[in-house]
Each structure stands twice: as C-alpha cells, then as structure tokens.
Automatic annotation (TrEMBL), chain A:
Keywords: ATP-binding, Cytoplasm, Ligase, Nucleotide-binding. InterPro entries: RNA3'-term_phos_cycl_insert, RNA3'_phos_cyclase_dom, RNA3'_phos_cyclase_dom_sf, RNA3'_term_phos_cyc, RNA3'_term_phos_cyc_type_1, RNA3'_term_phos_cycl-like_CS, RNA3'P_cycl/enolpyr_Trfase_a/b, RPTC_insert. Its EC number is 6.5.1.4. Catalyzes the conversion of 3'-phosphate to a 2',3'-cyclic phosphodiester at the end of RNA. The mechanism of action of the enzyme occurs in 3 steps: (A) adenylation of the enzyme by ATP; (B) transfer of adenylate to an RNA-N3'P to produce RNA-N3'PP5'A; (C) and attack of the adjacent 2'-hydroxyl on the 3'-phosphorus in the diester linkage to produce the cyclic end product. The biological role of this enzyme is unknown but it is likely to function in some aspects of cellular RNA processing. It holds the Pfam family RTC. GO terms for molecular function: RNA-3'-phosphate cyclase activity. It is found in: Cytoplasm. The active site is at residue 310. It comes from Parachitinimonas caeni. This is RNA 3'-terminal phosphate cyclase.
TrEMBL record, chain B:
The keyword Transmembrane helix does not apply. SUPFAM superfamilies: P-loop containing nucleoside triphosphate hydrolases. Residues 185-423 form the Sigma-54 factor interaction domain. It holds the Pfam family AAA_lid_14. This is RNA repair transcriptional activator RtcR. Transmembrane segments: none annotated. Gene3D superfamilies: 1.10.8.60, P-loop containing nucleotide triphosphate hydrolases. The keyword Nucleotide-binding applies. Keywords: ATP-binding, Nucleotide-binding. PANTHER family: TRANSCRIPTIONAL REGULATORY PROTEIN, TRANSCRIPTIONAL REGULATORY PROTEIN RTCR.
C-alpha cells in the first residue's frame, strides 16, 4: 500500500475518540481506503483503545477481511487495511463492553454496499449509557434511511441493560448501494408526543413516577409503561418520542442506581423540550448519524439543534474519506447542515 | 496476541450476594474484574470449595453474559480450614507446581481480593518466590455509592524497580549505604566504587563469609566494622562486633582466645573463658590476617562456621555460636593452600565473596577526598579546624599522587601524615613549608626501603613491640633474605665473617633460630608479595 493512499488521523484531537474510530471504520470499508489513527485517546485517563473500541474493530475486520495492526487493549495506534465487504451471516457477542447499537452503526453502512444480503446478530447491551438505545435506531434513524433507499430491518429479541447485558438485536440488510439524497429541513406538523418508561426488575412505581414527571414537563402526552421480564434487568429507561409529519425523534435518559426517577425523567423531558422549542428537524445524536448518510449520498441537507463537538469531528473525518464538502448555515432556532 | 489469565478464589462472601437480579447492582470482585474496559480476561481459573459449586456456576454464567471473551475454568480445592496457613500454602503450592504455565503466550494475574487473608498471604509468597510467574491483581469496590458497580482494579508488580517512586527511594537508600560504607568519603576510584557497590549488595542479601584481601592499611578492618554497623542498623545482626588479628595469636592461647577453654584445660587455666567466637554469637567476627592462623585452629574454625558449634579447648561438650564471618588477609591464600599452609576446605568456605581492596597508591584519585575526610576527623577529635593553604594543598596532592609516593602503609600512613600536618600547623593553616617538611619525612620513610613495611606486614601488631635495635637488625636481615634464594645462601651472607672461624658451618641453623625468635621463617619472608 502506498503511503499516500493511507488516511492519517489524530486520535487525540476533537471529541469522541470512539465516534472517530467507528466513522473511520465504516468509511474505510465503503471506500476501500486504508487508514491509520495515532495517539488514540492520548489525553484521557485511560489512553489507547478500550474494549468497546475493539468490539467495533473486530466487527469491521470480520465484515471485510481487513488487515489490522494495533488492535490491542491500550494500543495508541491502529492501522486498518480493508478488503472487499462480504455479505452474509454475522454474529458478534460483545458482552457489556460497549453497546450493540454502536457495533451496528459501524457495520450496517458497510453492509448496505455488500455484494449480497446480510443478517447480523449482536448480543450484549442494547440500552446502555453513552450509546443510542435500540428504540432510537429503530424509530428515529432507520425510517430516515429507509426514505433514502436503504433496505434494512431491525429487530430486538431481548433487552440488555448495563451491566448484566444479555440482550440481542438482529438486523437484516438487502444491498442497496449508495443512499439517495435527503433534504430534511422542515419537520412538518406535530403529530404526537409519547412518554415511555421501560422497567426490568425495577418496581413499576418507578415507571409511573417518570411518566408523571414527563407529563408535568411536557403537558398532555401519551403514556406508555413497558414492563419487561425481571430476568432482563435490572434496567430502566425513560424516553420521549416526538412525531412530526417529516421526522420522528427519540430522546432518552437512563435510570441508574442512586438517581431518582424524577431526575431521569427530567433529563429526557429537558432534551425533548429543547428539541421541540427549536425549529430543527433532528437532535444532536441523530445529526451525527445523518451526516454520514447524506455524505454517502453525495448531496443532501438537514437542520439540527446545535453543532456538537462530536458532529464537527465527525464531519472532519468524513471529508477525509469522501470527496464532499459540508456547509453549516445558521438559521433561526436551528443550524442547517448541507453537503454538496 | 498474548492472552491474559487470572487465577483466583471465588469470593464466598464478596461474590455471593444472592440470585436476584439485584446482584448486578452490587460489587462482585470476580465479576467486576471481567467488566473492566481496559482489561480483557481471556481465561479465569476460578478456585473454589466443592460446597460452593452452585455459586461458582452462577458466577460463571454471569461472566459469560458480560464478557463473552472470558473462558471460566473451575477448579475445586477443598480446604478443611481456609484460615490454616500450612494447609492453604500446601494446597496453593501444589496448584502452582502442577499448573502448566505457558508464559510465552499468556500473562498471569493472581487475584488476591477474594479468599481469606491467609490465602492472600500465600498467593503473595508464592508469587514473590516465583512459583507463580504472575503479577498480583487487586480489585476494589466502587468508592462512592453512585459509582459503577464493577469497581476498579490495580496490577501490582512485585518487581519493585518498575515503580518510579519506589525505585527512587531504593536508589537514595543505596546511595546512602554506599556513602556509609565509604564513611562519607566521595571516593573517585571506579574500581573501588564498583567493589563497594558489590559489597553493599552482598551484605544486604547474604550471610555467607566474606574475604577481604589487601595490603596492610588498605582499610580491611575499617570496612568490616562499617559492614557490621550497616547490618546492625538493618536488624540483620543483633550481636557484637568482635575483631582479632590472627597474627597475634600464638600457641595454646590461640585456641583458647578463639574457642574458649574450660577450667583446668591447661596449666594456668584457672577459670573458664568463653572465647571470641562465642562473644561474637549473633554478631560479626572479623578475623584479620586469617592466613596466620595455625592449621589446628583452621580446622576448628571451619567446623564452627559450618556447624555453628565447636568444642572449647579441653571441653567435651560442644557450645553453639552463630556469627557472620569476615576474614582479612594480605596473603595469596591460594598459593598457601597449594603449599599446604592453609586448609583448602576452609579456603573454599571463606572464598565465596572475595573482595580485593586496592592500596592507596592504586587509588591516587581517592587521595584528595580522603585528605578532606582526615582533616574533618582531626577537627572533630581535636576541636580545631585546620585548613591547607591553596598552594600547600596543591603541592601535597601533587606529591601524594605522584609515583614517588609509595604509600606502603596505605590509608593508615596517609592518616598519620595528615595528623602530623594538622598538629604542626600554625594558626589552623597548613603552610607550604609544613608540606615540604612532611614530604621530606615521607620520602625518608620510603627511602629506607620496603623493610619498615615488611616488618609490619610480617609481624602485624607485634612489630610495634620491638625495640628499635631489634627492629633495625631484623629489617636488614629480612632485606638480605629477600635477595637470596635459600636459607643457606642468606646464612652464608649474613655470617660471612664468623663462619670462617667455625669448623662446621651452621649459619643456616643460626639464621633459622634468629628468625624463629620473631616467629618467622625464611619461606614466609620470601613469599612476602611485593606491594604493587
């Protein structure tokens, strides 16, 4: 491999070392461009690759038969030379190190470009802190991708919460190649807001308190309690689904030991209120994911609530792999992200 | 990629917090160590009692859920009493001995947080003694209620040199010890400094005898005493420092001085005597000029070193004494063994740690630091700080480090020289004139040839008891002997006049008898090694 074909990244810059790695893996597989990241998480307390990063690297390696160097715990450099993306049947058991959804976000875009259909099963945590929960993937992210021509389906076989894990998500993907452009700058009429509380091996009173609090914050909303089998727990998630004519957003907060039901609900409720108060189509987490999709399409745009550090870093990485240029335009109550 | 293998007990209390889902909300060390985001346990060797099989299976099942990379291997170890040190040590020792470690491909960590404190101690001992080629793994609970239940972990490497702060501490202590052994003299001779470094290391780790070889005045006795003080301060010795020059031990009294005697053991033995070996019990015995020890005493000494017991003179009951031995000599003991003058077995026993102390002439670079040290010592002893004038110091050092300065008496001689200079100094200043006088004095001493030194070397402290008359006569006799190849040749030369008057030439015998008065013989004079 000639060195000029190898994209060099600095893992100490910007935010979200894990996000940079996952985006790079997806883009490297899709474009066939090797990359190397140095100084991975150099400024962190535990520098170098952690377990959850390795699970993403391992999945990517399996999917394209990449040649990988430095895929070890604590490694500060990683070199990834991708091979052709292979469709097929994949199983990844990741335990509670990282999240099933993060592995899927790395693997699925590559499998859109595979030569044949794929089925991918990821077992471990499906609802983890610091990762989008399955509900977000299924209800907010997947429908937008479907609109862009991506043919995939996601199914949750069992919930897995941190730390016990034990959940499973299965995704089926038909190769569709390059996504169609998407312009998502008007969210349309508000169709409904629903508060949901998931409890597993956690008293149902916790769910009630969370929904009471969400109602108090957001006004008249639909309420749904999802009581899961105790063996899937312990786990608790409060989420708000906001449905507009053109887009659905899912805003989430996780219950944890020592954090009251009210605080959990306030967290999700606050995110929902800020989102609804803006005129943006997508919240910051969905913006991260959508940036990759419209870049792959070659053109498109969307409006988002704010430009997070994650998004700027992600855009920098995308621009290294793809011949695209992002434009950020400030609008009233939103920021427009467009690609040409 | 290398694999990480953890060996540890199932925590019958810490890992055992029920079957309900709420077990996930509390810290379980064995589960928690498989949940660390910067540690992958590829295999967990889980030791447990057969009565705890159920718990072990549950833990195994939970680990499979959270860490699919981890293979859990259960080993049932039944201990009647897990608080019994002997039993636990034996069980873990057997485990370590029979486990097939593959250190080329696997890294081992011993989890010490679970199991009894006795088990913890045994893991530590087995690891420290390298029965387990492992590092210690300690897990800790979350510090705050709200913190993640997986807790934290720390790997403890018993190779302390890997820890910067500890290594710095050791280096400082090492430097202090070295400085102590050198009495704070910043010696510059690389050969000497290297030797002191080795001695320091040996002194810290070994109780075996040491042999210090060097010319008289090189500081053997001084170093032995320093070693004793060092070992005492480190609590490696509790007893006394006992020093004896073997050249001063003669006849029956030699036996008695060293090994003691019982009442009536010989004429004049009116009371019992403990002897120096017993006085050194628990302490350090410095036998200077060990080469001068008689063969009988050598045999007794060897037994005393090897068996830590011996018979006092005239006694049929053994006594015990355990002491650290340091021997000193200026002889070539190997040569003496070859000639049957020194027991080979004793030599082998004391030749384990042999250090050659170079004479002062071989350590010219150390003369200046020693000179400063001697002035400081003089100040301490006499309450008067004496200094050299700059030019005077330059002149003295230039002479002292030149090849003219033979320093046959080594450090003792340097010390005497500085003491003379300091005593004669006017108003605390050593002047150039004073130095000139002292240089003259030293030159005169050395111009007299080797004899002054030779008498000292041959007779040891006994030399000091000679009248000047006898000493000068003996010096001349020794010089002649050294120039001759045989006793007869020396006799012919020494008695050249009187032998002509005798019918039968008996000059060899006359010389032998003369030398015997000083307990000397021709062979010993001839073997006196040249000071180099």
């Amino acid at each position: 491999m000639k060195p000029e074909h190898l994209i060099a990244l600095d893992g100490s810059e910007g935010e979200g070392g894990g996000q940079v790695l996952r985006s790079s893996l997806s883009l490297s597989m899709i474009t066939g461009t090797p990359f190397r990241i140095d100084r991975i998480r150099a400024k962190r307390a535990k520098p170098g690759l952690l377990r959850q990063h390795l699970t993403a690297v391992e999945a990517a390696r399996a999917i394209c038969g990449a040649k990988v160097e430095g895929a070890e715990l604590g490694s500060s450099s990683l070199q990834f030379i991708p091979g052709p993306i292979q469709g097929g049947d994949y199983r990844f058991a990741i335990g509670s190190a990282g999240s099933c959804t993060l592995v899927l976000q790395t693997a699925l875009p590559a499998l859109w470009f595979a030569d044949s259909a794929s089925r991918i099963s990821v077992s471990g945590g499906t609802h983890n802190q610091a990762a989008p929960p399955f509900d977000f993937l299924q209800r907010a992210w997947a429908p937008l991708l479907a609109r862009m021509g991506i043919r995939q389906s996601l199914q949750l076989n069992r919930h897995g919460f941190y730390p016990a894990g034990g959940g499973e998500i299965v995704a089926s993907i038909e190769p569709a190649g390059k996504p169609q452009p998407l312009d998502l700058c008007e969210r349309g009429e508000l169709l409904g807001v629903r508060g949901e509380a998931l409890v597993a091996a956690v008293p149902v009173t916790v769910a009630n308190r969370e929904l009471d609090r969400l109602s108090a914050q957001l006004g008249a909303i639909e309420r749904q309690i999802r009581e899961l089998p105790a063996r899937e727990g312990p786990g608790n998630v409060a989420l708000v689904e906001v449905r507009y004519a053109n887009v659905t957003e899912v805003l989430t907060a996780f219950g944890e030991k020592g954090r009251s039901a009210e605080l959990v609900a306030d967290d999700a409720g606050q995110q929902a209120r800020l989102y609804m108060a803006s005129s943006a189509c997508v919240d910051e987490h969905l913006a991260d994911q959508l940036a990759l999709a419209i870049a792959l399409a070659g053109s498109g745009s969307f409006t988002t609530t704010r430009v997070s550090g994650h998004l700027s870093t992600n855009i920098e990485v995308i621009e290294k792999f793809l011949p695209v240029e992002f434009t950020l335009t400030e609008q009233a109550d939103a920021i427009k992200v467009s690609v040409a | 990629m290398r694999k990480t293998v953890v060996i540890g007990f199932l925590g019958t209390t810490l890992d055992n917090i029920g079957k309900s889902q709420q077990r996930w909300e509390r810290w379980r060390p064995t589960v928690g160590l498989c949940q660390q985001d910067d540690l992958i346990v590829h295999r967990l060797e889980l030791l447990h009692d057969s009565r705890m099989r159920g718990l072990a299976e549950r833990v195994k099942h939970d680990i499979a859920a959270i860490s699919p990379e981890t293979e859990v291997c259960r080993t049932e170890v039944d201990l009647r009493n897990p608080w019994d040190f002997e039993e636990v040590y034996a069980a873990l020792h057997d485990y370590a001995r029979t486990y097939s470690f593959n250190t080329d491909e696997e890294d081992y960590l011993v989890h010490i947080t679970t199991g009894t404190h006795v088990a913890q101690i045994c893991w530590f001992l087995l690891t420290e003694a390298h029965y387990l080629p492992a590092r210690l793994l300690q897990t800790s609970p979350p510090r705050k209620e709200k913190e993640d239940q997986r807790g934290t972990y720390a790997v403890i490497d018993l190779d302390l040199s890997r820890y910067d702060k500890i290594a710095t501490r050791f280096a400082r202590e090492h430097a202090e010890t070295m400085s102590f052994l050198k009495s704070g003299i910043a010696t510059r001779s690389p050969r000497f400094n290297r030797m002191i470094e080795q001695i320091e290391r040996v002194a810290g780790r070994s109780k075996a005898p040491m042999l210090l070889i060097g010319p008289t005045g090189a500081g053997k006795s001084f170093l032995a005493r320093r070693l004793y003080e060092l070992k005492k301060s480190r609590r490696q010795l509790a007893g006394r420092f006992v020093e004896v020059n073997c050249a001063t031990l003669r006849g029956d009294s030699a036996m008695s001085t060293l090994f003691g005697h019982v009442k009536g053991a010989f004429t004049g033995a009116l009371t019992e005597r403990a002897g120096l070996l017993r006085a050194a019990d628990g302490g350090l015995l410095f036998l200077d000029e060990i080469g001068e020890l008689g063969l009988d005493e050598q045999a007794m000494l060897l037994k005393a070193i090897e068996e830590k017991r011996f018979f006092p003179f005239g006694s049929d009951r053994e006594v015990e004494s355990e002491f650290q031995l340091i021997a000193g000599t200026h002889r070539d003991l190997k040569q003496w063994v070859a000639e049957g003058k020194f027991r080979e077995d004793l030599y082998a026993r004391i030749n384990m740690w042999t250090f050659e102390l170079p004479g002062l002439a071989d350590r010219a670079e150390d003369i200046e630091p020693n000179l400063d040290f001697e002035l400081a010592r003089f100040a301490q002893e006499h309450g008067e700080q004496v200094r050299f004038n700059t030019e005077a110091k330059r002149k003295y050092l230039s002479f002292a480090t030149s090849s003219d300065a033979r320093w046959t008496g080594n450090f003792r001689e340097l010390s005497a020289s500085i003491t003379r200079l300091a005593t004669l100094a006017e108003a605390g200043r050593i002047s150039e004139a004073g130095v000139d006088e002292e240089i003259d004095r030293l030159r005169r001493t050395w111009a007299g040839g080797d004899e002054a030194g030779e008498v000292e070397a041959l007779l040891g402290e006994a030399a000091a008891e000679l009248d000047l008359f006898d000493r000068m006569q003996l010096e001349s006799v020794i010089r002649v002997c050294q120039q001759c190849h045989s006793l007869s040749e020396a006799g012919r030369k020494l008695f050249a006049m009187s032998r002509q008057e005798k019918a039968k030439a008996n000059d060899a015998d006359r010389l032998r008898k003369y030398l015997a008065r000083f307990e000397l013989d021709f062979a010993r004079i001839r073997r006196q090694p040249a000071e180099d």
